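Dissemination and training. As part of the outreach component of the grant, students in the summer workshop were shown how a complex can be specified as a set of sequence lines and then modelled as a single object. The example used during the hands-on session is reproduced here so that future cohorts can follow it. Participants entered these lines:
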Amino acid sequence: DIQMTQSPSTLSASVGDRVTIACRASQSISTWLAWYQQKPGKAPNLLIYQASTLETGVPSRFSGSGSGTEFTLTISSLLPDDFATYFCQQYSNYYTFGQGTKLEIK
Amino acid sequence: QVRLVQSGAEVKKPGASVKVSCKASGYIFTSYGISWVRQAPGQGLEWLGWISPYNGKTDYAQKFQGRVTMTTDTSTTTTYMELRSLRSDDTAVYYCARGRPPRYLVDYWGQGTLVTVSS
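and obtained this result:
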């Protein structure tokens, strides 16, 4: 099974900050990597797929990069609506999710 | 618009079975897969398996093989997930989610169904 490891588990930041979340795969997944945002009591929402492609309707302050085993999600300038939990997911071989990164207000 | 509407919350005793439904609308049902993912309270996301509404082909996570069954009814565009021999650690919110080909990227999610297993 492919394991996905996210860091950090919790990230404290302020509105307007630039933040980066990392995701590492236990083996190469090419660019078969997605990022989701989840708010309390809600289903996840797809932000980015194939490592760097923005899903339709997602603001351009979100971006993704990486290939192989190392990936990042960057939010260029945080808005209040961005404070949530973020998950990475590999879909190279079945599906595995990272454990999540909670982005909280500093 | 794409919608996945799931059945309501369930409370089950250990050893029982639960069957959750997921009704799809707003797209061609047989052109996309459906995955089931669960999330235990305060925990991360865990994939249970996948079904193709086109031909009924399934793929289950090894952890759940023998305990989970996924089916579809194309006449009602509904997918079902049955989990048997429930244990307390099966308590979770269960989501259905659409898989976009060719790699069946999970793009739209249902609202979730809370399954509570308690004696």
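The CA atoms of residues 8 and 57 of chain A lie 27 Å apart. Students were then asked to discuss how this feature might be tested experimentally.
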